Amino acid sequence: MKKVSFKNRIALCLVFVFLLPMLSWSQKRIKPPKRASKVESVDAFVNNTFELYHKVFVYDSLVNAGVEIPAEIEDELVEHAEQDVDSLLQIVPDLIDDISDAPFMRQAKATLNLNKAKKALKYCGITIKTYFVGTKEEEDEKE
C-alpha cells in the first residue's frame, strides 16, 4: 500500500476547500437517507455506499470543471474505491437475512434506504467505468 505524502494531502484539502464551493454540479446529487433503518448491516452498507458515492461524485465534478488532478490523488481514489467495494461485498450476504428478521416498519425503511444506495452504486459504477476503465484501455493501446 502506497502512502500519500503530507504535501499532497494538504494540496488535496486546499482543492476541496477552495474549488468545491465554486463548482456548479453537473447533475443532481443523490442525498443519503436522513434516518437509519436500525438494521445494522443495512445501515453499514448504506453508509459505506454513500462514502464511496461522495468520493466519486467529487472526483467527477472536479474533472467536469476542468481541474487537473494529480496522479497520486487518482491512485489514492482508486485504492480507496477498491477497499470500499470490498467492504460492501462483505456486507451484502447478510442484508436479506437481517431485513427479513426485522419488524415490518424496519423492513420498509431498510428497503427504502437500500434503494437509495442502489442509485448511488449505479452512478459510481458508471462513473468509475468511464474514467478508470477507459484510461487503462488507452494506456494499453499506447504500449
What does this structure look like?
The radius of gyration is 17 Å and the shape is elongated. Helix 2 packs antiparallel against helix 3. The two termini are 25 Å apart. It is mainly α and 143 residues long. The longest helix has 39 residues. Helices cover 76% and strands 0% of the residues. The protein has 4 helices and no strands.
Brief account:
The protein has 4 helices and no strands.
Number of helices: 4
The gross shape turns out to be elongated
Task: Tell me the fraction of residues in β-strands, as a range.
Answer: under 5%
What would the average pLDDT be, to the nearest integer?
Answer: 79
Low-confidence stretches are: none
Give me the Rg, rounded: 17 Å
- Estimate the helix proportion, in percent: over 70%
What order do the SSEs take from the amino end to the carboxyl end, as H and E?
A: HHHH
The largest β sheet comes out as:
none
Which structural class do the helices and strands define?
A: mainly alpha
The tally of strands reads 0
User: What is the first-to-last residue Cα distance?
Assistant: 25 Å
Can you give keywords for this protein?
143 residues, mainly alpha, 4 helices, 0% strand
Q: Secondary-structure map with pairings?
A:
Layout lengths: L5 H14 L20 H25 L6 H31 L2 H39 L1
